[in-house]
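Entry 12.
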Amino acid sequence: MAERLRELHERMSAWTLPESGPLLGMYGSDHTAPATDAPDLLAAAGKETGIGVRLATLAAFFEGLPAGTDGLPLVHGELRSHARANILPGVNSIRPELKRAMSHAERWVERYAEPMAALYGDGGEQRFLDMAWQRLIAVSCHDSVTGCGCDETAVQVGARMAEAEQLGQAVCDLIGQRRAAAVPQDALLVFNPSPRQRSGVVFAEVDRPGVEVLADDRDLPAEVALTRIHGTELYGRHVASWSLSEDGSTLTFAVARHESAAFDVAEVREALGEGWRERRLRVRILTSPGEKVPVWAEVPALGYAAVRTPDQGSPADAALPPNDVRCDGRVLDNGLVRIEVAGDGTFSLTGADGTTTAGLGSLVDGGDLGDTYNYAPPAADVLVAEPESVRITRTAGSPLCAALEVERRYSWPAAGDFAVDGRSARTEPVTVTLRVELRAAEPYARIGVEFDNRCDDHRLRLHLPLPEQAESSFAEGQFAVVERGLTAEGGGGEYPLPTFPAAGFVAAGGLAVLLDEYSEYELVEEGRELALTLLRSSGQISRNRIPLRDEPAGPQVPTPGAQSRGLRSVSLALLPYAGAWTSASDAVLRAAEEFRHGLYAVPGAAEASAPLPEPERGLAVEGPGVVLTSARERDGWSEVRVVAEGGADTVAVVESGFTRARRCDLLGRPGEVLPVDGGVLRLPLRAWEIATVQLGH
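Predicted 3D structure (tokens):
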């Protein structure tokens, strides 16, 4: 220990550091617990060498440092780099179903449930939020969330993610249904999870004129027919009325989406008379045909508003978007974005400012003989890019929403062939459906990709040509936007593969890809295209021999679950922009916020004749480059966390009915008191600063 301490001290002393400053040596590593006698060993080594040594936490070390950074070494470039450590980049794209599940669970809890509970809850929701956070934290460590572990771990992790998401949804449902009790049945109560006023499209189930037969059973025992009724529910709807034919042979139920009248099944039994259990009847279930339709909503910041559905709305209660969505053949246009689908299934995209790119949406499937940690292309790779057939259909069309679907059929190699370092000659037929959708007033195109993965040991990427050749990309990560070039730094025993992670979006060359889940991307063709990984399949935790890594990353354990067989569904959006990232960053951040956090709608439960309640405004947060990451209740205060992600100094303007404000740390401990003027807090932020404030009355 003493010899190692001397060596470490000599190496660190060669750095340019303040002579009086302490030196920090990190102790412990992956899968290695600190020695139980470490304090004694360090004390003995310090005594022998004369070097002052103390064992402390990282927080305690920094608390003892003087203010300022003069003399500290500067690292230019991304700290996440092969040059400083092996980073095992393949974990970003393995088991994508876990990344999707985690993204959805985090958003339901942190950006829907917590703000709704803080602003509109009654306090009873906190126990559900506590349970949700326990599950999120339990799966947020190392191999759990990255997916580079055994299948049994992935199953348990997926279950906890699902529980967290369901708990978040339960909180929203509890609050939403309480508020929707005063909203008419022919309307929706729409919540806005964003801290700015928003307009957008939500979807509602409505009844259309006519009669639809849900069931027509002849010679059915009456007892069986009546046991299908649970309270007022029958066939997923509610009994609105019932009748028995004059000859007593036919029992008819009319069911509706809403529970509108008292119904007692005992009245039916009484009408059937004595011995009703043995009677055999014709039982008919009738309803109005239903349809899911888009509805336009304008909702205050972190607030809610009630909106009528189209069949019941009138100019007096229904707002309309500034421009309709038009669909003409293979062309979609909403006045802000124009899409034209080509015969090969790719499409062009043009923004309102004239920014244009074509050839979007091609798919390239290649082999992957790597593991859950690293991608490894076969030496004799087979790339499949051309579909065997293409079919384009119109699937939705209204002034608020229109969509085209591109169905492409491929033959992909069924698996990797490790014996020849290639892919198998046997193929599997795969159909990939790509949906292109425009909604009213949205400056981006929504893209959905869906397919049934029937193959092993491969990687599928979506290729997106850029409006302009790019020398770098800008991707949102954890509380920051990271700029990266076309290459990666080498080191750590790994090949410097320039595939990088992105959380909320990646932007390059005039095109921003808005993401629904944690994803992996690469700039290819010398910066002319962006390739987004949709799926990477692998059958081993680690492999002892892999071309892009010197050493095994873990045990060679089979992971058939990491082949990710079955349905894969990916949602994203494409936003064209003109100019440099510095001028477009605020627009991209706003679009990413709205795409990831859709408006949340709850059906009304009051009588249809009831008036629409007035909109309710919650908490507003504005400012160039300012991103809201959390809004919650803590000890009677409304706690808000914001980040300056625009890359420049800015001011966050927080507005609500509060009269007091103070800074606090991540544990909620109060700090500096802040001035409030008329319910408005102006909070200066340095570039990339994370600030947490508490607001009170």
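Annotation: The chain is about 20% helix and 35% strand. The radius of gyration is 30 Å.
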